[in-house]
Amino acid sequence: MTAVPGYGVGIGWRPEIAGFVAALPGLRMVEVVAESVDPGAVPDALSALRERGVAVVPHGVALSLGGAAPVDPRRVDRLAAVAAALGAPYVSEHIAFVRAGGVEAGHLLPLPRTREAVAAMAANTARLQAELDVPLALEPVAAFLDWPEDELDEAAFLTEVLDATGALLLLDVANVYANCRNRGTDPLALLAALPPERVAYVHVAGGSSHGGIYHDTHTDAVPADVLDLLRALTARRQPPTVLLERDGRYPPAALLRAELDAIAAASGHPAVT
């Protein structure tokens, strides 16, 4: 299994908060949505971060690795080009599908937890890995429901995907919280059943409840329960990197710094602010 470097606490880079991110003195890693970057014209703000030694990790959202159809080679080539242009130490994508039968969902959709889905993930992931020069981490997504044809529980399914692909795990503790809360299951039990040695880095994000369903919004503050899960994970294995995802409704800089400080404290990392 390929080891990846650790970077403490990071944040998802977005143009709207580029100035805030640039001013974080202890920052060593950011994540950027891969499809938002032109490999031939990397934004100056990202280049400036790289020049000061901050790692930039592309996070793909559109490959549809879990789809039944073979992954589009043009999308694979573009993601590989973005990783090369950013000098990325690793790349991440999702255990999900986003299109089927020529229809674009516009959203990351959960896979049925079947061995047929594991095989589809393995085949498409192999096509991606063949073009990458760096390790790949796969992220399970938030889901509101389970498929009726599920054969495996979540931990067993994720472990089989990781074993079949040889990929690392991008563990989103906010997704763990959302999925377990909506299903009425125990998030600590799920964390305990996942292989901690496969974790490349960790996502943390905020959410909110509507109509009895918890939504992983990325536009709200990180709940205390998610920070508690991060502490539980850290007690099992110090995560190499914990990254805050925020995709809108950005709070004042002081509140965003406080959230990063809380994540650092929960994961035992030095503050970046």
User: Which class in CATH terms?
Assistant: Alpha Beta
Most strands sheet: 8 strands, parallel
Average pLDDT metric = 95
Distance between the termini: 33 Å
Adjacency order of strands in the biggest sheet: 3-2-1-12-9-8-7-4
Number of strands: 12
Q: Summarize the helix and strand pattern as letters.
A: EHEHEHEEEHEHEHHEEEHEH
Give the CATH architecture.
Answer: Alpha-Beta Barrel
Q: Which oligomeric form is depicted? A: single chain
Instruction: Identify the overall geometry.
Output: globular
Secondary structure: helix percent: 25-40%
Proportion of strand residues: 15-25%
Rg, rounded, reads 18 Å
CATH 4th-level superfamily: Divalent-metal-dependent TIM barrel enzymes
Unreliable spans: none
Q: What is the CATH fold-level name?
A: TIM Barrel
Number of helices: 9
Tell me the domain tally.
Answer: 1
Please identify the structural class as seen in this structure.
alpha/beta
Organism: Pilimelia terevasa
Pfam families: MbnB_TglH_ChrH
Protein name: DUF692 domain-containing protein
Output the keywords.
273 residues; alpha/beta; TIM Barrel; eight-stranded parallel sheet; two-stranded antiparallel ribbon; 12 strands; 37% helix; 22% strand; globular; MbnB/TglH/ChrH; DUF692 domain-containing protein; Xyl_isomerase-like_sf
Overview of this protein structure:
There is one protein chain. This protein is of the alpha/beta class and 273 residues long. The protein has a single domain, classed as Divalent-metal-dependent TIM barrel enzymes (TIM Barrel), CATH 3.20.20.150. The chain has helices spanning 18-22, 44-51, 73-86, 115-129, 154-165, 173-183, 187-193, 224-236, 253-267, and strands spanning 8-12, 29-33, 55-59, 91-95, 97-100, 103-109, 136-140, 168-172, 199-205, 208-210, 213-215, 241-245. The chain has an 8-stranded parallel β-sheet with strand order 3-2-1-12-9-8-7-4. A two-stranded antiparallel sheet has the order 5-6. Helix 1 links the parallel strand 1 and strand 2. The longest helix is centred in the middle third of the chain and has 15 residues, at 115-129. The radius of gyration is 18 Å and the shape is globular. The model has no long low-confidence stretch (mean pLDDT 95).
